[in-house]
Amino acid sequence: MPRPTKHAPERGDARTRLLDAARDVIRTKGFAATTVDDLCREADVTKGAFFHHFKSKDALGVAAAEHWAETTGALFEGAPYHAPADPLDRVLAYIDFRRSIVSDDIPAFTCLVGTLAQEVHATAPEIRDAAATSIFGHAETLEGDIQAAIDARGIAPDGWNAASLSRHFQTVLQGGFILAKAGNDPDLAREAIDHLDRYVRRLFGAPRPEEDRP
User: Locate the HTH tetR-type domain: which residues (predicted)?
Assistant: First the structure.
């Protein structure tokens, strides 16, 4: 996900600055390697301000996952993929939108809550659960369009449904982020998204565009 443009922090907004710092630093360094000092330095706040708002780094992790869900929810709600009249076109436009926000800066487009879930799923259940709420909650936003596309095309799903396909989108996206990190190559995320596009088109019997992506 793209970072908002940085600007001079405003007084009295230390909590938000810390949450924004967590978004950026954790995606770059990981949760375990991120220290309270790192967060305070990035947010330009004191340790006293940190512990005024969060009793621990884990508490900050939960709040950061919730903040991520709120801010990315607003981003996706206002995204252009909702515009097409045809529900399958909306689903495919969502995939195109996800590809469009993959940049050459790997930490900037990868997923905070995916990173958190990978690191702490067995050690910090409160953070894991907050991350899960964000990941599965976003997947649920696609279910209506997927179901409408199923209905519009008279498809009888065999062993899958709108909910499972929406979760598969997350499987591909999160996996693409991991491969991009592992290979230090954002094109691996783009490749995964392109395969998702092909898969969905074949699943719904929709042709590929005549022009291939570069």
Answer: 12-72
Residue with tokens 């600055």: 17
Instruction: Answer positive or negative: Cα dihedral of 158, 160, 165, 168.
Output: negative
Tell me the CB-side half-sphere exposure of residue 198, using CA atoms within 13 A. 9
Calpha distance 196→208 (Å, rounded)? 12
Domains located in the chain, CATH noted? 58-204 (1.10.357.10)
Query: What is the sign of the dihedral through the CA atoms of 139, 81, 144 and 198?
Result: negative
Measured distance between the N- and C-terminal CA atoms of the chain, rounded to whole angstroms:
22
Please write the tens of the pLDDT for every residue from 116-168: 999 999 999 999 999 999 999 999 999 999 999 999 999 999 999 999 999 99
- How many residues are given for the chain? 214
**Using one digit for the tens of pLDDT, what is the confidence trace for 175-198?**
999 999 999 999 999 999 999 999
- Report whether 176 contacts 188 (CB < 8 A): yes
